């Protein structure tokens, strides 16, 4: 059940009469949710093969000609910026495998977003951290699902834990802070590391965010029995180190934040499946091949690449963005009987 309306729409605002969709002001949907956070997927390729995301073999990737150029990404980002989008997160696939990523970051940052962040698996981060910070990147989220080398190898299937831990240190030295660590928990695989990760958060000051396994793996193997509910994670940590919710009223952020009662650090819970936060969702996404999506779990895509490559104007891009946001459903419906997982998986959409 969706509850929120973050911001109403003045009744005097100009509308597209066919749909009552506003054609000026911020990007707003039918439920009053203002969209000011853009996820930019810059590639669907990746140098890892995490079990919850991609198969070990046989993943097919977009032909290069279908992937947006830097200029095309920047045009969409620029229009979004003018429509009030203030935060941008660069993701993928693995964004750091895109050639010229520092240049792209610099050009995105120059558009004037107040928050410029990137999510990475960390494998290529250490040597790039200083250049990314110099380009205007403000902070990174590094994914790391185990603090044990053998487990890391079993879950991520390529790359090594020590490289990722070194990357976290390099990112902090470059000023890419606060550093957040994304952990997808899988029952029977790494859920016995919940308190190890909590200890890690306390020792390092990094914000560890526990993410529920979502039905977005490319193999279609998602099984609810493997999902570790956010509530359980909180209880297990709280038995050792009491936690206090960090008051963040009306925050659209997906993570519920909790600080350790003794003041030593913070963890986050992203309970997308068991406690959906659709009511405050402020995000829209651009896929690497130029589709605007208003929800990770929806199949509706708005092909902005066709507009860009068909000679469309910025006003045409704006109209497409407005229509994409206006068409957003109140919730993702994962827990409803008729839910069908989207045709595209997490790495193809941009997580
Ligand atoms: N490759 C980068 C990385 O791994 O951080 C960025 C893209 S990845 C798709 C973004 C985030 O989505 C990562 O934190 C990853 O762990 C998470 N993710 C991928 N598949 C998921 C799934 N099926 N359920 C929950 N989270 C998932
Ligand atoms: Fe690659 Fe990130 Fe997916 Fe892992 S989660 S396979 S690192 S895109």
Keywords:
two-stranded antiparallel ribbon, binds S-adenosylmethionine, 351 residues, alpha/beta, disordered N terminus, twelve-stranded mixed sheet, binds iron/sulfur cluster, TIM Barrel, 14 strands, 10 helices
Characterization of the model:
- The protein is an alpha/beta fold.
- It has one domain: TIM Barrel, CATH 3.20.20.
- Helix content is 28%, strand content 17%.
- Strand 5 (115-120), helix 3 and strand 6 (139-143) form a beta-alpha-beta unit.
- The longest helix has 13 residues, at 70-82.
- The two termini are 23 Å apart.
- Mean pLDDT is 92; it is low at 1-12.
- Residues 46, 52-53, 91-92, 94, 119-121, 143, 182, 184, 211, 213-214, 216-217, 346-347, 351 line the site of S-adenosylmethionine.
SS-based structural class?
Answer: alpha/beta
Describe the largest sheet.
Answer: 12 strands, mixed
Separation, N- and C-terminal Cα atoms:
23 Å
- Domain unit count: 1
Quaternary organization: single chain
Count up the helices: 10
The CATH class: Alpha Beta
Low-confidence stretches: 1-12
Can you identify the CATH superfamily?
Answer: Aldolase class I
Order of helices and strands: EEEHEHEHEHHEHEHEEEEEEHHH
Percent strand equals 15-25%
Largest beta sheet: strand ordering = 9-10-11-8-7-6-5-4-3-12-13-14
Proper CATH architecture:
Alpha-Beta Barrel
- Could you give the count of β-strands? 14
In this entry the ligands are:
S-adenosylmethionine, iron/sulfur cluster
Give the CA-based shape: globular
Gyration radius, to the nearest Å? 20 Å
Helix percent reads 25-40%
What's the mean pLDDT score? 92
